[in-house]
Amino acid sequence: MFRSTSGTRRVLLALCALLLSLVFVLPKQSRTLLQAVGKPLADVVALPLDALSAADRRIVDLWNSYVALRNVQEENQQLRREIEFLRGQAADLREMAAANQRLGELLRFQARTPSQSVAARVVGRDSSNWYQGVVLDKGERDGIRPEMGVMTLTGAVGRVVKSSGSSSVVLLLTDPNNAVTALVQRTRDEGIIEGTLGGKARMKYIPLLSTVRIGDPVVTSGLTGGFPKGVPVGTITGIQKDEGDLFQTAEVQTEVDFTKLEEVLVVTVPRGGEEPATAPPAEKKKP
Amino acid sequence: MKQWLYVGLVVGLVPIQTTLLEHASVAGIRPDVCLIAVSLIGFFGGPADGVMMGLLLGFEQDLFSAGELGLNLGTKAVIGLLAGMVGRYVAHATPASVVPVMLGLSVCSGLAFVMAGAGGGETLAAVQSVLLPQAVFDTTVGMGLYWLLAERFKKDDSLVS
Prior knowledge:
The complex is a heterodimer of chains A (287) and B (161). Chain A has two helices and twelve strands. Chain A is an alpha+beta fold and 287 residues long. The C terminus of chain A is likely disordered. By secondary structure, chain B is mostly helical. Chain B has a single domain, classed as Orthogonal Bundle (Arp2/3 complex 21 kDa subunit ARPC3). Chain B is built from six helices and no strands. In chain B, helix 4 packs antiparallel against helix 5. The N and C termini of chain B lie close together (12 Å). The model of chain B has no long low-confidence stretch (mean pLDDT 82).
């Protein structure tokens, strides 16, 4: 290598040796010189350095972002799971609060009524399409027997037709095979409430001379059907009076929405209290 | 396997019928899954299985129905027997050939209920609003189930006694 060095190279080597000598012999002066020479060089080198640095930062940022994103994604999934869990809990709590409120109203109503009753939950519908019935979660162990009346705080529901140890079947008022004696509250005319295949109710055997009219409330008469006297049944929405008939028939819109039955009271002892002036009002929800 | 399947059906079918099928009702009519199950068991497993499961499921259904006790028991047992006899004498059953069988069985069951007074004396209305819609519903669901089960049970004959 040294054999091939030219004169210029020898000069450069001599300058380097001189510089090193100056650095070691005259350190302060040599630094000032080095700074003066180094500034433009530094400026020149700074350009690619900045570029590389920017690229490096970008790569590092990308890498960090990727890693961070992975962490965020995991955190996101965990948060989503927590949200789902909390939403489920909130729905459960809302459902429990609603059930609690309904049961509270039912118990307050139970305490107000003179008859004795057992609260039960509706757990299913009739197992065939031929009967309009519901299945309750209480049976003979709770004192429920066939022919007992079933009601809610809104009005009459039907009567128990079967009961086993822990469940019972209720035939709804809207079933054609059901018959409950009732009276028109205003005129005191008696009749029999029975259902139709369309899931509605009608009051049959209203005396021909009765002044019954649309809008009249119908209540239980307390004579049969296991109900106390005066339980709301529904409101008359139409009257059918054909020439030659001995009785009138009225269509009745039931007070109870049978598609939304959840809790009911089974009247175990329908002892005869006085008919209430109006239907017992449901407790208003407190804000 | 067959025994466990039958036990599962006895334990689970009526609760499904009384609770979950309410959500599958169309115009208030639900498919009678007990009738469909008894028909298919009779069809695949023979008259004896059909009658036995008809009795069990029918009785269970009676316990959770407002109708007379024994009505479902009797109709389901007869349906199981008829389905079993049909299944025994039909060599090459297809979903299409199951349609008249299922339709006929459901109509027979419905007529038994009408004759027992389930419609409250409104016979024509009962036929129009309950019997026929339910027969169509039962047949549709039954045909679908047959289509799903046919390959499975025809191959290993696990239901054939």
